[in-house]
Amino acid sequence: MENKPFALIGINTNGYTSEKLKDVMDKEKLNWRSYADTKADKTGALGPISTAWNLLGTPTLFVVDHQGVIRYRWVGGPGEAAIDRALEKLIKEAEGNGRGGN
Fold it and tell me: Are strands 70-75 and 33-36 parallel, antiparallel or unpaired?
């Protein structure tokens, strides 16, 4: 999706440190930004990103449009076709809106 109005961001909630997450990302050749959302304590409380986004399980996938509005949210894997349809729709909208509101 090079040269498209699109960004992929990962939030890791399994307790990895930033250093461990970087090692995994390098090994798996993941080329998107990802953040380690570590828990504040041992009580099982969610990390700050998970708390702010009200994560109910993993994976949770959000598709946020070019105006910053959450348009899709899936708990669990929705399947590649569903993700592709959502992204294609929002990219078309963003590209159309990006040229003077056409």
Answer: unpaired
User: Between vectors from CA 56 to CA 59 and to CA 93, what angle results, nearest 5°?
Assistant: 65
pLDDT tens-digit series, residues 49-90: 888 988 877 788 888 888 888 899 998 888 889 989 999 999
Residues in the chain, total: 102
pLDDT of 99 above 60: no
11 in Cβ contact with 37 (< 8 Å): yes
Q: CB atoms < 10 A from the CB of 88, how many?
A: 12
- The H-or-E segment that residue 9 falls in is strand 9-12
Query: pTM here?
Result: 0.69
Task: Tell me, letter by letter, the H, E, C secondary structure of 12-79.
Answer: ECCCCCHHHHHHHHHHHCCCCEEEECCCCCCCCCCCHHHHHCCCCCCCEEEEECCCCCEEEEEECCCC
What's the angle, vertex CA 23, arms to CA 19 and CA 26, rounded to 5? 135
